[in-house]
Amino acid sequence: MNPQHSYPDHFFRSVLEGNDAALPLRIEEQLRKLYPGNAILACESLDLEDYVALGLASSEVSESPTPALSYFWGGLDHDALYPSYSQVLWNVNWQEHRMQVLQVSWQTSCGGQTKYWVMAQEPTIAEAFMLDVHRKTNDPGESILVFKDGHWERSKEMFELVHSSRMSELVLPPERRKSMIDDFKRFLASQDQYLALGVSWRRGAILLGPPGNGKTHFLRALVQELEVPCLYVQSLDHNYYRSEQLLQRVFERARELRPCVLIFEDLDALIDHSNRSFFLNQLDGFERNHGLIVIATTNHPENIDTAIMDRPSRFDRKYEFPLPDSSQRARFLEIWKDKLHTQGGLKGDWDGSNISKIAQATEGFSFAYMKELIVSSLLIWIHQESQNSRRCDFGQLLEDQTRVLQEQRSSVG
After folding, report:
1. Alpha carbon distance 249, 64 (integer Å)
2. Same domain, 281 and 190
3. How confident is the model at residue 184 (pLDDT cuts 50, 70, 90)?
4. Domain extent at residue 353
5. pLDDT confidence bin for 411, thresholds 50/70/90
6. Between 191 and 139, whose confidence is greater?
7. Within-domain flag for 82
8. DSSP at 391
9. Which alpha helices (DSSP H) does 35-173 contain, by range?
10. 66 and 175 assigned to the same domain
11. What's the predicted TM-score (pTM) here?
């Protein structure tokens, strides 16, 4: 074999002709002709727009080549059109350097793919820029990372929802609520002790109980209390990738942000026999999961494999959120009475004297059902107030609606 044998520059493109892998090679070949003597670095991901939004660089879209632009609607909460580029060349100003970033997206037999090329005067400039983009955009900042459709998205809406949740509004015995919060806070503050003892600094917890009893509320308020990055797994479904591949992406990103909280809500719907072994393998990582808090919720613990539920070091904390008892239902009504008096104009229409009676009559109600009782009664009260000049008795409306909802529950059950 002659080690000095000379291959043509287009060797890889030629042998991959007709394969999806040839496209980025053809793109790079063209770029080297357009930017002779410049550094050209390629990467699989580059959150340039987020980086610019952080004020760390400025960019503008180059008119040549013509970008492929489409718009999407932000929905009722963000009622505007937002641009989305599939093919675009960005002119970027970063620190004292000017460079260009090419973004190209295309379809393959396994779905969509996007790649970026950074063109700069020197390799060191391109490398420093790419590193800074990755480092600064890796932290979710004032957002929650949500995994769905096979990739991570920043959700400012979920972040705002988390930071509007109050642990004080969660109807739990104060000592139990404090114990759960302190458990996680002590964990985050104890890294040195774990390392000194040679124990893996990781924590797994699962929240159990029927729907509508505070698991999600507790999670949101807990994330706010812990003040570490939060990652939320919404779906492990994809048209082309297996759930094992998606789980790999989930845990890889979480490990980049440690210490952090990784949430699997409705675990029984996310993990089944096809991906259970891989999920367990990811949970069992020792060094890889250092500083990782994995929290799962489920309404149906009986549907979760015992290897997940009962094996120590996976989910070693189990917190139950059962249906509220009479005293908890009364406390829930007290909280709402105070809120409606201060915010809803009901001060003279509900003195709360029948709270104990309603609490007794709502046996079997979840907190979500208790909220439905309040909301449905409010709707009737608002309608009656608009139709009548006399003041309505909101306390009586609550009693009437309690009977209606109990009948509905009986008919469904």
Report:
1. 35
2. yes
3. very high
4. 326-412
5. confident
6. 191
7. yes
8. P
9. 48-53, 123-138, 156-164
10. no
11. 0.80
Report if residue 3 sits inside a domain.
no
List the structure tokens of 255.
Answer: 């490990």
DSSP 150: T
Q: Phi/psi of residue 389, each to 5°?
A: -85, -25
3-state secondary structure 232-294: EECCCCCCCCCHHHHHHHHHHHHHHCCCEEEEECCHHHHCCCCCHHHHHHHHCCCHHHCCEEE
Q: Structurally, how many domains does the chain consist of?
A: 3
- The answer to whether the CB of 129 falls within 8 A of the CB of 39 is no
Rounded to whole angstroms, the Cα distance separating 291 from 295 reads: 13
Task: Give 376: exposed, middle or buried? Use CB within 10 Å, 0-12, 13-18, 19+.
Answer: middle
Whether 148 is in a domain gets the answer no
Tell me: the pLDDT tens digits for 25-56? 999 999 999 999 999 999 988 999 989 988 99
Q: Which helix (H) or strand (E) holds 376?
A: helix 367-387
- Across 95-224, the runs of DSSP E, i.e. the strands, are 97-108, 111-120, 144-148, 151-155, 203-208
Of the listed ranges 163-167, 333-337, 368-372, 407-411, the one predicted with least confidence:
407-411
Q: pLDDT-based confidence at 107, cuts 50/70/90?
A: confident
Residue ending a domain, among 105, 138, 171, is 138
pLDDT at 14: 78
* Cα 202 from Cα 259, distance rounded (Å): 9
